[in-house]
Amino acid sequence: MTAAPSAARPTADTARDRLVLPLDVGDLAAAEAMMAMVGEWFGVAKVGMELYAEAGPAAFARFKDLGYRVFADLKLHDIPNTVRRAARAHGRHGVDFLNFHTAGGLDMMRAAVDGLREGAADAGLAPPVALGVTVLTSDPDASAFPARLQVAVDAGCDGVVCSALELRAARGAGMTAMVPGIRPAGAAADDQARVATPTTAIADGATWLVIGRPVTAAADPAAAAAAIHTEVATALGG
Length: 238
Known about the structure:
- This protein is α/β, with parallel strands linked by helices and 238 residues long.
- The chain has a single domain (15-235), classed as Aldolase class I (TIM Barrel, Alpha-Beta Barrel).
- It has eleven helices and eight strands.
- The chain has helices at residues 15-18, 28-38, 49-55, 58-65, 80-93, 106-122, 145-155, 167-172, 198-203, 213-216, 221-235, and strands at 19-22, 44-48, 69-76, 97-101, 129-133, 159-161, 176-179, 208-210.
- The chain has an eight-stranded parallel β-barrel with strand order 1-2-3-4-5-6-7-8, surrounded by five helices.
- Helix 5 links the parallel strand 3 and strand 4.
- Helix 5 (80-93) packs parallel to helix 6 (106-122) and helix 6 (106-122) packs across helix 7 (145-155).
């Protein structure tokens, strides 16, 4: 299996560094098999609610052991104390990214960021990237975005999760951006309402691109991944 080079802090220097694969494909064995097919082109493994429900923190450990960066896409949202404690635990697990719903408000978001950094420090690890989820890309109404972006900024997040349509505002506020809803030209939007191509998202300032079903549901996932990687590398000028 192709493994990503290890790093204490996530970077986005190459096309592979920027590509994030959602592993919502079944259990841990199925997720590992999918990553084996496309890991040459995708450097970040996204462990969302589906895989986390199947495998728990073992999924983080497995993909870290294989050398990938891990995005814990768990969208924490609860009272501040609960979120702080959960974030601290995930920080100790060594995830590279963790996200929280900015709709939870400023106190919750500050608790989340603090807890994540405390957990990483407890484990002797570099702080992960704390991401504020703004408006889901399945929602056609992004009117809440400006207020939620400000919450992420005020809470001390490193970046936000947003659609490509909000990228210029996010980058203008000094935020890195994890961007779902990415679809190659001509691909089905599925349940995504606010989408963009990889080329457009890179041009508008995306840091990381989350691209799932166009790869995982493709007849040939490796060929789909290679084509997307080529498009992103070209957009980056590489």
